[in-house]
Design a protein that fits this description.
The protein has three domains: 276 residues, FAD/NAD(P)-binding domain; 118 residues, no CATH class; 115 residues, no CATH class. 33% of the residues lie in helices and 15% in strands. Pfam families: NAD_binding_9 (PF13454).
């Protein structure tokens, strides 16, 4: 029998998670004579680029160590078997409430990868190719060819799975114009990038720097330009090194993401999903004309989040409501949006106890200060209030809303591309920085190293400088010779720097209006522009319209990424096990050496820079002349 070949492009957390699911499902589903799995990634397998161990120890995980797992549990709705494993804090021996640094997470991911390889049945061998895949071609009904940079021979594959993770992107028109202006006038412009990979040396000590973006990329920037340049914290006071620039930061909202919640759940949980579950998602997917997020989806999200919020308020803080939960819940379920507002007003006396998602999304709307100094005081009060609230169980409806957000995300993943607004809103409420990072922001603000610009920040380039203004202090302008875009790049299939993704799109793979690669929601097969799934190409991760909230997730929360990984792994194994699975008719001579490392259950860490034995199906095809 022919030995089959699977190529996985991307060996970070998503590729590792897929490998774990292949190992879990193979004993049931794979009946082949053997299988070569080729992992293509220039970065170390397991950690990949983002979580690689070789980065600054000052950069932290954004979740408590107890909230990070790479292993399934019984809450994941999937066809494959559950294989439990330790969370990050259990594996590393950390306090569960610790925010571990990313190097620890990288080591955990490498261990998960090694364990997945060790769990593969005999006859399945893993090869890591430390390079970049640049193109995939081949007939729909035949073996695929995966071309690697710097190689004249492609990898042959029965199937290809793209688990590319977060990608770099070519700048959009505004970013190109700002970069061109900077070059022409001797300024510094750093476009959207992964902050840990950015060259920050051009940001000079003591000089003002405009920063657009107040999310997690900004937190990394702040850390690397302060503690990373020798500053230190003494309690709530920052002691400068003298090497820090002055950061003037603003964004659309003008405030940082909400701090992580600093207390645990107690008592009864809301029964989620309640108003936005599988049945509602099925109905949306079945609509002949499709659906609109704001018109059709957001009302369900709004009702679900409100249900969780008020369930918690009634059951944990009954002294702050009127009536019983049972009576309220019955009326809430039957009410339309206007009726719900009236119901809430009558049952919840204090407006501060009512859930107002619009106000949460835009906390500075209508807020105006007379000067930048007044704004600094006002934003410090806002951050102090957020820290206090997120660590006070008296505000535990916030934690209920967080649980509802996770439930909602699991449904939205099934809907595909719902536009960028939702993902930003989710991250702002549910995926903000650790509380200690906000306390550091306060210390830096008091030290004069961090300055707030406000909401609706705009940037212009004129008269040889960059200028920033915001709506929160009308008429006020900040000038600087450096501008940093503190946000991740948005790699549409047209603008992704990854040549493999661009070539797939050029060859007919479909993209959503938001520029994401369109995939079959059932198993991740790549769709063409006619909506047909490619029988031999799959894709998982944030570059697809089935992107989840992360490659790893909180234990016992259903893990949409785990469900997707399992579905793809089972589809891959079933295809390769089918008697009609096509075999390659080509038998080219393999090269004498191969830039790959080879891993099997019996030899997990071997580095063997040569092709597999000649008795196997050749891995490489001669390049056409």
């Amino acid at each position: 029998m022919t030995r089959h070949s699977l190529v996985i492009v991307g060996a970070g957390p998503r590729g590792t998670g897929l490998l774990e699911r292949i190992a879990a499902n193979a004993p049931e589903l794979y009946a082949g004579a053997g299988l070569d799995i080729h992992l293509v990634d220039p970065h170390p397998p397991g950690a990949g680029r983002i979580w690689r161990e070789r980065q600054s120890p000052l950069l932290w995980m954004n979740s408590h160590a107890e909230d990070v797992t790479m292993f399934t549990d019984e809450t994941v709705e999937m066809a494959g078997p559950v294989r439990t494993g330790p969370t990050l804090h259990e594996w590393a021996g950390l306090d569960g409430r610790t925010f571990a640094d990313r190097r620890v997470q990288g080591a955990y991911l490498r261990w998960v990868y090694d364990r997945a390889v060790a769990d593969l049945p005999d006859g399945i061998t893993v090869h890591h190719h430390p390079g970049r895949a640049v193109r995939v071609d081949g007939p729909r009904e035949g073996r695929q060819r995966v071309w690697l940079a710097g190689r004249t021979l492609p990898l042959l594959a029965d199937l290809v799975v793209l688990t590319l993770g977060h990608l770099d992107a070519e700048p959009d028109e505004e970013q190109r114009e700002l970069s061109a202006y900077a070059r022409a006038h001797g300024l510094v412009h750093l476009p959207p990038d992964f902050t840990a990979d950015s060259d920050l040396s051009a940001l000079r000590p003591g000089e003002p720097v405009l920063v657009r973006g107040f999310g997690l990329a900004f937190v990394d920037l702040m850390v690397l330009l302060t503690e990373g340049r020798g500053g230190r914290y003494e309690g709530d006071t920052y002691v400068p090194s003298g090497r820090e620039p002055v950061l003037h930061v603003g964004s659309r909202r003008g405030v940082p993401y909400h701090a992580k919640i600093g207390y645990d759940w107690t008592g009864e949980r809301p029964a989620l999903p309640r108003f936005f579950g599988p049945a509602e998602t099925d109905a949306l997917l079945a609509r002949p004309g499709g659906f609109d997020f704001r018109r059709d989806v957001w009302p369900l999200v709004d009702k679900e989040l409100g249900f969780a919020h008020y369930h918690r308020l009634f059951t944990a803080h009954p002294e702050r409501v009127s009536g019983t939960w049972a009576a309220f819940a019955e009326k809430y379920a039957a009410a339309d949006p206007d009726e719900r507002a009236a119901l809430v007003a009558s049952a919840v006396p204090d407006p501060a106890d009512r859930l107002d998602l619009a106000a949460l999304d835009r906390p500075l709307d209508g807020v105006r200060y007379g000067s930048h100094e007044e704004l600094q005081d006002g934003l410090r009060r806002y951050i102090e209030g957020d820290l206090s609230r997120r660590h006070d169980p008296q505000h535990s409806p916030d934690l209920a809303v967080f649980l509802a957000l996770l439930s909602v995300y699991g449904q939205l993943v099934r809907l595909g591309d719902v536009g960028p607004w939702w993902h930003g809103f989710f991250s702002y409420l549910a995926s903000g920085p650790p509380g200690p990072r906000l306390r550091q922001m306060l210390a830096l603000s008091r030290a004069g190293i961090l300055r707030f610009v406000g909401a609706d920040m705009t940037v212009t380039a004129a008269d040889g400088v960059f200028r920033a203004a915001g709506a929160t202090v009308p008429g006020a302008v900040v000038e600087a010779r450096a501008l940093v875009e503190a946000r991740l790049p948005h790699p549409t299939v047209e603008r992704a720097r990854d040549p493999l993704l661009r070539s797939l799109h050029a060859d007919g793979a479909a993209a959503t209006p938001d520029g994401l690669l369109a995939v079959d929601r059932a198993d991740g097969r790549v769709l063409d522009r006619a909506g047909l799934p490619h029988p031999r190409r799959f894709a998982l991760g944030p570059h697809t319209d089935a992107r989840g909230s992360g490659a790893f997730t909180r234990p016992r929360t259903g893990g949409p990424a785990f469900r997707q990984n399992d579905a793809t792994a089972r589809a891959v194994l079933a295809f390769l096990s089918a008697p009609q699975a096509p075999k390659s008719s080509q038998t080219p001579q393999a090269p004498k050496s191969s830039q790959s490392s080879q891993t099997s259950k019996s030899s997990q860490t071997s580095q063997t820079p040569q092709a597999p034995e000649a008795a196997r199906q050749p891995l490489l095809e001669e390049s056409p002349r």
